[in-house]
Amino acid sequence: MKEYAVIHRSTAAIYASPKKSYTKDGQLLSSISDEGLFGNLCRVLGEEQGFVRIMSHYGYIGYISPDDLLFMDAEEKDRWLASELMVVKALCLDVMSAPSVQGVVLASLPGGAVLGTLPEEIPSHPGWTQVLLPDGQQGWVTSVHLMPKRYDEDYLCADPAHMLQLQQNASKNQREACGGNDSFSLQQVLDRHFHSSEAEFRTSLVETAKSYLGVQYRWAGRSTFGIDCSGLVSMCYLQNGVSIYRDASIVNGHILQRLTLNWDADGHFLLTSLEFLRPGDALYFPGHVAMYLGDGRYIHSTGKAGSNGVVINSLVPGTSDFRQDLLSSLYAVGTIRAEE
Question: Which residues are catalytic?
Fold first, then answer.
């Protein structure tokens, strides 16, 4: 089996174990823990009970059906990465057989999916971009629905044993973890994509998050077809050039660091601390994460009845979208800051 693979389905379920489901209290529940998106690279770690064990390009380990993968060796992987990759920014984007709305639909992809592009010498068609699929098939998409891929596959060659240890310890150590990765420099991302401006970066984080408003909640989802809380926050960072931990935890060895704040005697968040938060910071609750927007408001994907998707709420009592349950349980804020 080849060392690498690329997701070759619009969205692909990634499971915590080589079993798709389990029974609890008489209910059949899914063991899904993550979701792969079309064009995403992963590292192949082995086979088990008909599944392939993989490590994603953001360092998350799980099990996936081999039918959802296109296997690659190192040379094929590098060729895919070199094909001027672009990211889908539409809620849904059809790949067409021709630069025409009357073409045959070759694939329907969610926001966050990745496509290769072809050299500029290909004859142009205004408003259309010719794209390359991982299997070499070519197609056309509307240009306005693509944006440059800003992130690198930071964890693709990381030590799987180390990444698994971080993943296993994340949930039980979430309240104590301080996070951070000494090798990461936000300034490099700012210089490369945001005219060296942290404010521009944070504005883009917020705009990316708002583009998911109304998308349904999907446990372990990472796409515009359905997304969970950590999927939303991690995808927003990823699309802006920063790979953070995929789940709703601050994790040592990953990029976000715990922001030092004041808490009341019972460990509750003080609203006076809002002045220290910046748009794009991550708000952590037990088993949940949101993105701070500014002015006491945050955006998140919630499974709460009546919302069931990406919505905006407030930390400020008395506002119409205030949620007391989340204010009471907020226990940490994760951030990255440029060198000052």
Answer: 229, 288, 300
